[in-house]
Amino acid sequence: xxxxxxxxxxxxxxxxxxxxxxxxxxxxxxxxxxxxxxxxxxxxxxxxxxxxxxxxxxxxxxxxxxxxxxxxxxxxxxxxxxxxxxxxxxxxxxxxxxxxxxxxxxxxxxxxxxxxxxxxxxxxxxxxxxxxxxxxxxxxxxxxxxxxxxxxxxxxxxxxxxxxxxxxxxxxxxxxxxxxxxxxxxxxxxxxxxxxxxxxxxxxxxxxxxxxxxxxxxxxxxxxxxxxxxxxxxxxxxxxxxxxxxxxxxxxxxxxxxxxxxxxxxxxxxxxxxxxxxxxxxxxxxxxxxxxxxxxxxxxxxxxxxxxxxxxxxxxxxxxxxxxx
Length: 325
Hints:
Elements: E1 9-12, E2 18-21, E3 33-37, E4 42-46, E5 57-60, E6 66-69, E7 74-75, E8 86-87, E9 90-94, E10 99-102, E11 114-117, E12 123-126, E13 140-144, E14 149-152, E15 164-167, E16 173-176, E17 179-180, E18 183-184, E19 188-192, E20 197-201, E21 208-209, E22 212-215, E23 221-224, E24 227-228, E25 235-239, E26 244-248, E27 259-262, E28 268-272, E29 274-279, E30 284-287, E31 300-303, E32 309-312, E33 319-322
Antiparallel strand pairs: 1-2, 2-3, 3-4, 5-6, 6-9, 7-8, 9-10, 11-12, 12-13, 13-14, 15-16, 16-19, 17-18, 19-20, 21-24, 22-23, 23-25, 25-26, 27-28, 28-29, 29-30, 31-32, 32-33
């Protein structure tokens, strides 16, 4: 890449290129961003973000722009006025102009939050690391790309950071696990965008945070890895029709820094130091060929239009492509 970064975001644009933005640079949070062209294999710098961001979350909107949320922390009070809350902000990237603009919004969570594109085009931002009261937030926000406004919605039942949020086929959002100051959770919640409300559903088999969650082709959700009280962490499947969890075959290798990507053939690629493939049809795992360079924690994986996966390392400027075929 043009720059070394960690804790960055990667987003597949409608033109087939990949936007890589922010992350930890050599010493500080970086505002730089760059574009990867899968056709030429080349990286080119694009306009800097408005703020340096580490641990932000990004999503592609229906209008082709990219919404990047939090990953920065700013103070709303001078230090002389006592304990200072931390908040995050948002901005938009326009691929047509290569420019960034402020998207408004003020968020409790600076990192370890989730950003989910809903079926109606709005974006749900939930939870994240916060300074009060115990290091997590239960806050939820909705961004409307049509109006550019942030709308109020119901808060989660519990505060979460390091959780996952998965859009289900019925339009609801499954939020699973995460943690607070007391450790990882096994709690699971469902968000109903039509009502703006949260409801509890059956718990995970294992409390976990910083795990992965993938919506499979059959509508179930695969969850595995993360920080748990169980070693190795179990793998499990959520069925939205029965709202129940069942055990899945565990991964072959213990690993950290997971990324999980649904491939075009229905298998799931999990990357963390090495690569592994899950086949839902046979409930089995298999190792990929060795990576060119082991991908450390804070790497990202992006499914490209041709079915290959771009893996961008955290903590370096190295990138590599996995070919499932």
